[in-house]
Amino acid sequence: MKAWVEKGGYLNERGRRWLSALDPQEVRRILVIRQCAFGDMMAARPFLVELRRVFPRAHITLSTVSRYQYALPRDLIDEVHVLDGEGFLAEQWRSLREPGRYDVLFDLADTSRSRLLSLVTRARVKLGFPYRQVFNRLLFDVGILRSDFHYEAEILLDFLKIMGHKPQYPLEFSLPRHRPGEARHRIVYFPYAAVSRKSLSRESWAALIDQAAIRFPGYQHVLLEGNKAEESGDFLMDIAGRHANVSVQRRLDLDALAPFLAESALLVSGDTGVRNLALATHTPTLGIFYMTVPFRYWPHYEACHEAVFHRDGRVPETSDILGTQESLLSRLYSA
């Protein structure tokens, strides 16, 4: 097999030999390290779908940490390894050595724990994409470049493109899929984020939904509650009482949330896991950014996603969001 890389990646001699002799049918054990929260787990799903296509006979183990087990893609893997970060050093070391020996290791995390696991795990070949290139030479046989300016789900696929694999586009997440002709006239708003500074204030969200209900009267405007007690939609009750097309959707579990988003016309939110789930269901999204680099969470292989942000990083105003929202709805759903 040819190593499909020129100047865009790292390849040592062992990695080159492995690629040249690679027979995907002979790869039986793969370890994928992904230690991340809800949104980044969503971004890993196309990689796991395509990994199974490249290595159809492999047993795939996903390694994570105890705090990041929500939204694990159990339907796409064979086994979960949880790296123990608590307890005595002997217990943590035993957890590090637990995975055993693998044919292939992919480090999709680039954290101190993932690097340590990559170091101590025995594997014929190790692939990673560290921000600091020194770790390529220290830990990996094959390395790809990492970027803040491309959708991360696509960057992960570069691990397989180096083997000459052609991923499916639009990306396949193996989740319920949005179909524009069947979408309900429903705009969903998710006003929360794991880091509160990444989301607009409650007052800003209330003003946005209040004006959107008037500006887009043909849509039901639904505020989606989050998992935490403080992620309640009670702050919108006054506005919901004044508009027949405004309501609050109480918390949904993950199995119900994916089809709910897929059946909606649009999701409006900041940089959140829920927005990443909407991306994974191919539901149109309007992302509001002012802290996070938007390009890493903004797929361009589909025209149904838009981002509103200012070059100087200031917080977008309600008028900015409504104007972009109107343009996107017109582009997607006008007859």
From TrEMBL:
UniProt KW keywords: Glycosyltransferase, Transferase
Pfam families: Glyco_transf_9
Domain of life: Bacteria
Keyword Magnesium recorded: no
GO CC, alphabetical: cytosol
GO BP terms in the entry: lipopolysaccharide core region biosynthetic process
An example Gene Ontology molecular-function term: ADP-heptose-lipopolysaccharide heptosyltransferase activity
Keyword check for Ligase: no
Name by which UniProt lists this protein: Glycosyltransferase family 9 protein
Native source organism of the sequence: Bisbaumannia pacifica
Organism taxonomic ancestry: Bacteria, Pseudomonadati, Pseudomonadota, Gammaproteobacteria, Oceanospirillales
